[in-house]
Structures are given as structure tokens and as C-alpha cells.
Batch of 2 targets.
Target 1
Amino acid sequence: MIRVLIVDDHQVVREGLRFVLEQEPDVEVVGEAGDGRAALEAIRTLSPDVVLLDMIMPVVDGKGVLDALRAGEPGPAVVVLTSYTGDDEAIDAVRAGALSYLPKSAAIDRSHRRGPGGRDGRQHPGPRRDRPSRQPAARTGR
């Protein structure tokens, strides 16, 4: 079981991430935090394996959280979530200690769960982003 802490100052983002993560059988969301200070306390008390960390937050920002984690004992893996999409921000986050960097604009990919080779063996509907639908529109009134 992978224990995850979600850290973002927007409640709707936290709730959305929680909803998506709770669909995964091997993931447990152990908590949420809305700012960096609360995140550091939650990391200390909850001992998550992974922290999903927003970079732009009040009180202590994501960089401050990464700096505090790097200065302490080995801690959780950190995946940075942010609305920035530039390479410079990604490089800075990784240099500060993040394992990975994910723009908030990234689509949720559930392809690993689809089809006979999927993890649970069942078909899972998901968005098709590779091409538009070629089915004709339904006709009415004949």
C-alpha cells in the first residue's frame, strides 16, 4: 500500500486528487494539507510514502517544504504539482529534492487499467484523446 499526502492550498484540487487516488487499490490517502507548515506537520505525524506537493501556497511554499525535507532525515518521495508549465520550474523543483514534476494541466491517464491486460482484468472506460469520434450524430424526427 502506498501512503499519500496531498498538499495544495485549493480544496477542490485536494478533493479531486483524493477522488482519483482512492480509485487505485494500492493507494491510501493518509491526509491533506492546505499550506506548507501544515504539510511539514502532517509529514512528521503521518509518515507518508509520497507527497503530492503544490509549489505555490501560503505560509510556507513548496520550495520551503522541499528545503525542510532535504535538511532533515530521509523522508517521503515528493511529486511536485503546479500550474507552472515551464522547464525552469521543473528543473528547480527536482534540484530542490522533488522526485518528479507534474503540471496540473496534465490529463489523468487510466490506460494502465484498461483492457484484458489491465491490472484488474476488467474493461475501464476512459477518455480517448488520440482521435475524435467518427460515429455520426444520432438522427431524430423521421
Note: The chain is about 30% helix and 20% strand.
Target 2
Amino acid sequence: MTELDRLYLDHVATLEAAYARAFDGQQNGGFDGVAIHSGNLVPRSEFDDQFWPLRPVPHWQHWLPLVEPDAVLLVEPGRKPRLVRRNASSFWESPAPPESDAFLQASRSSRTARAPSCRAFSRRAQARASGPS
């Protein structure tokens, strides 16, 4: 493990602790976690299939050194962050490989066949907030 990887894992541990404190207690609005989206590709024109370069969401880049469209990081206190990435439909659409894969050590990673949806995550949070029926 390189020094940069060790520093990154320490950074993620600090973020996990800060988010756990934010979700501790009753003042968090009843939320169980947060979903951080990486950002969307924006078409250059409605008449072509070219896109502007992705500018990831700052909260995403605070957690991950990835430049990937339509990915989601699910952060829940007491659990490893979960990275949900979209499968690239072709070689040309796949993102460049990252310089390090230390983020995979710090999170649970999964791939989806299509763009990720956070509906299941929000339904589970709503069910917990409403209590037993």
C-alpha cells in the first residue's frame, strides 16, 4: 500500500466519522443515510451524441477520486460506504481507470446494468421513519 493510499483511507475514515455524527440523534430529520451522486453528462447539442466533459459534484469528489457519470455513493452510519457504478455500454463510453483503487478497499462496490436509482434507499428510510404499522 502506498503512502497516498494510506492517507486516502484515513481521509475516508474521517469522513465516515463525521457523517455518523451528523446522523446521530433525533436532529437529523429521520434520515438513515445520504446518497451522493457523481453527476450527469450534459449533451453539447440536441442534434449530436457528444457530451461536455463531466464535472463531478464536489461532495462526490470529497469522497472519491473518480470521474464517472451516473454513479452513486450510499453512506449510512455503521456500514461501509456503498459505491454503485453503472456498467458502460461500450468500450468508448467506459471511464478512464483511476490511478489508485484504494476507494474499493474503503467501500463496498457494485455494478448495475442501468443507471442507478435511489428509490429503494429512500423507501427503506421512509419505512423506518413511519415505524411499525
Note: The domain at 3-130 is CATH 3.40.350.10 (Creatine Amidinohydrolase; Chain A, domain 1).
